[in-house]
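Next comes this protein.

***
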Amino acid sequence: MEAFNCLYDRYKSLVYGYLHKRLRNRAEIDEVFQDVFLRLHHSRSRYKSEFPFEPWLYAVLRNSLIDHYRKKEKQYHDVSLDELEVTPTALQVEDKHNLDGLLPENVDLSKKQRHAIELRYGEDFSFEDIAKTLGTTSSNARQLVSRALKKLRKIIKPEDVT
């Protein structure tokens, strides 16, 4: 237990900061933060000490975040973006990875294409992670991103980009 407390004290800021950049509100951050450390605690017997701890922690952190996105996607599957209410706390967090407002409104992207683009270029997800998040295959995730980029290329000309 003492070793776990030491790891918690050492990495809590790193985990919290990582989540703060990717999630909108404090309740979500706290939920995933707790999940990360619970998973670490429950899977401690599977950790092999001959390997570095940080990559293992990052894998657990990333998987918890992906699971959170999946759960959230299922909850809000039938809700349009216009129906979602923005809270003042969400506006106070600067998110350099948020692509809202950067993608032109006149681009006819499906909801999945827009989400795939945001995950790929906003969150730097791999195609495998995008597939897991969207509940599809890796090749379909590649296809979603590719088709979305083709549509964007038709609208955005190189001279328009500054």
Summary: The chain has two domains: 2-75, 96-160. The two ends are 53 Å apart (CA to CA). The mean pLDDT is 76.
